[in-house]
Write a structure and sequence with these properties.
Helix content is 44%, strand content 18%. By secondary structure, it is an alpha/beta fold. The structure holds S-adenosylmethionine. Belongs to the CFA/CMAS family.
């Protein structure tokens, strides 16, 4: 059951006609958009050839303004709490146990991570992110919630090769609102390595901005993919991916895929 309205799924936000229509409907957003486009253009020029370096600069700039906005758009603490809760509740409904060993890719400032850390046994949470600035904020979140005894491992990365992590270790890998900001080669890199760190029976859940029209991106920041593209990419790396219908019923604009090793696999 795909609840997202059909016009939203076929919209191409990179087209000039879409931008003009949007500007006419939301004139107050034109100036902020132009400022963002100018800033992003400069970052793209400075870091040409490296999406990760470019996006790290975007995160540094956004985090300096508001860490909550940097991980989710709206700078509201209530929204920050609600989206973290949504991610946490979903995984608990899907059987997350304190004994699970979790890797969170793009953990941000622990919007959901602090809840996972609180729930999991000590040492069972690893959070990685390309942005040192947001990881400093993550440490503040950890202190705020008094979770030092849980000994989570938080570390910056500049690729998704996951080469510093052990084989077959993680029962749950989670990436929320990360591939919605990633070009296909970043997702490809992640899918080519995540199978190695996934424990037997483990799974990797990630959200993405779904389109049923042509795939496109806006400002090198927001990427829209067709579900079959991502399913085929997982298959290319010997993994299977399933669309999470129950996630569609939740108040969140992105869709979710669950990737695992072929075989009996996790219960969805
Ligand atoms: C929209 S925020 C979401 C953060 C967190 N998952 C949450 O739900 O609050 C996206 C995060 O992913 C990180 N990120 C983006 N691309 C990444 C990559 N290729 N590898 C690791 N982290 C990445 C960003 O730095 C940012 O912290």
């Amino acid at each position: 059951m795909h609840k997202t309205p059909a016009p939203r799924l076929s919209r191409n936000r990179s087209r000039l006609a879409h931008k003009v229509r949007y500007a006419l409907r939301h004139p107050q957003r034109v100036l902020p958009y132009l400022r963002r486009a100018g800033r992003d253009g400069w970052f793209r020029f400075r870091h040409r050839g490296s999406h990760i370096a470019y996006y790290r600069a975007v995160m540094a700039s956004d985090t300096a303004r508001s860490p909550a906005a940097a991980v989710g758009g709206a700078p509201s603490h209530d929204r920050w709490l609600a989206i973290g809760q949504l991610q946490y509740d979903y995984l608990v409904r899907h059987g997350l146990k304190p004994q699970d060993r979790m890797l969170e890719i793009g953990c941000g400032n622990l919007r959901a991570g602090w809840r996972f850390i609180e729930y999991l046994e000590p040492g069972h949470y690893v959070g990685i992110d390309i942005s040192p600035d947001i990881l400093i904020e993550a440490k503040k979140t950890l202190v705020h919630y008094g979770l030092q005894d849980k000994m989570p491992y938080l570390t910056p990365v500049d690729n998704l090769k996951l080469d510093f992590l052990p084989d077959a270790w993680f029962t749950v890998v989670h990436a929320h609102s990360v591939f919605s900001h990633s070009p296909l080669e970043v997702i490809d890199e992640c899918l080519s390595h995540v199978g190695r760190v996934l424990a037997p029976g483990g799974f990797f859940d990630f959200t993405y901005d779904r389109t049923e029209g042509s795939e496109h991106q806006v400002l090198g920041e927001d990427f829209y993919y067709r579900t079959e593209t991502l399913i085929r990419l997982a298959e290319k790396h010997g993994l299977v991916a399933g669309f999470m219908d129950d996630w569609e019923r939740l108040p969140h604009g992105q869709s979710k895929l669950r990737v695992s090793h072929p075989g009996p696999g996790p219960a969805t």
